[in-house]
Amino acid sequence: MQFGQFAGLGGLRVVDLSYNTLRSLPRDAFESTSIETVDLSHNEFVAMPTSALTEASASVRNLNLAYNRIEHLDSTMFANTPHLLSLSLAHNRLTILPDNIFIGLGNLMHLDLSANSIRANYKELFHYVQRLRTLRLAAVEADHFPALLLPRLSRLDVSGNALRDLPHFNSVSMPHLLHLNLSANQLEHLPAHSWHYWPRLKAMDISHNPIRVLTKESFDGLDRMQELTVQHLPNLTRFDADSLAQLGYLTRLNIQSWPSIEKFKFRLGSVVSGISSLRYLSARINEPNGMLTDQILGAFGPKLKELELTGPALRELTLDAFEGVESYELLLVVRDTSLDRLPDDFLDMFSNVAHLSLDLRNNRLRGLAPEALYKNGSAWERTGTRILQGTYTSRNAPPARLFICLNEKGINLVSLPLLSCEAQPVVADTTRRTVDGHATD
User: Fold this and answer.
1) How far is CA 371 from CA 291, 379, 433, in A?
2) 419 in the same domain as 287
3) Closest to 109 in 3D by CA, of 61, 147, 149
């Protein structure tokens, strides 16, 4: 990079130099600028470009140095950037962090130290950043929960560590915590003794832990929980049907089937049936025989708007799998499975759904037989379905044919890529039908 590369560009606010091979910046690179955001992630820095950042110290608010090779930090490196609001040092080579490293960052609100082998006194380390709202300490090789006194913290990520339990906090530790990620640790039980210290907690991920038992007591105190992920618990042997019943505000649940648990001790539908507030349900189906039969029966609450079925083990849907589903509007997502066909009379299972949308991305479907959507498969063209010419493309995804299906019941949609596609599904207008290419009311 040339000397004075951006010097004098008074209107410049964002500099993104990510995904390069930069190892340093000229001292005067940002001279006489008012840059607010600097992204230097995915480069080859081995030290902080302190001198260059000093030139923009009065204006820089967001600094991203993730995915570099920085090994050392000291308090002098941030002395000239006192107005920083967001700082990412994730995926570097940091180890020992001095207690006063953030002494000059009293305005910092978002900090990411993930994926560093950190050795530090966390209580003292964050003493000077009391305004933190978001803290990410994922994969920092922690074997105990750091002692944190951050009264304004709302989002904490300690995933990917070796935590076995949470300590007993006091009421002033993190009273405003809203989001907690405990996934990929070594928790054998949920630390229910901690929940009452976080009365506002509304989102939590406990997946990828060796948890053995989940009962009503496991979630006692999580009265305001709205989003919960309970998946990939390989050692789970007990999951009581009323475990989640007291979560009266739960609207989003990511869960799975556990065929290893005896059926009379656990059934996915029974666990979910008591959650009347649920709007989004994602279920990973892990049945050895690959069939979805009665696992989710009873899981269709009155407010359910989106049902997602996923998991590579899923190969077949049976006609009674969705018995009892009733909704004015429902999005059914079957994605990332081994499903190669829909059963005949598939849509008959949703006769009590006024407006049904289907998302069938990234499966093994080789086609969509008319019999799956229409009772009279030989006369499907007269029902109002047309195949639109052309392709549906999205960024970083291969082209895929787009089918839009409309019928007399207003059951519509259908985005069916023949190849994997990560784009959002295209939803057709259900209020009109097409005849010979012309819309009719």
Assistant:
1) 20, 10, 20
2) yes
3) 61
Number of structural domains (the chain) is 2
Structure tokens at 219: 């979630």
Dihedral angle at the C-alpha atoms of 310, 311, 315, 316, nearest 10 degrees? -40
pTM of the predicted structure, to 2 decimals: 0.84
Tokens 């929940």 correspond to 195
Q: What is the pLDDT of residues 23-59, one digit of tens each?
A: 999 999 899 899 999 999 999 999 999 999 988 888 9
Cα 168 from Cα 128, distance rounded (Å) = 23
Kindly report, residue by residue over 102-117, the tens digit of the pLDDT: 998 999 999 999 999 9
407 within domain boundaries: yes
Give the separation between CA 158 and CA 162, rounded to whole angstroms: 9
Tokens of 225: 């929980």
Host domain of residue 51: 1-141
Distance, CA of 425 to CA of 420 (rounded, Å): 12
Residues 300 and 432 in one domain: yes
Last residue of a domain, one of 107, 141, 175: 141
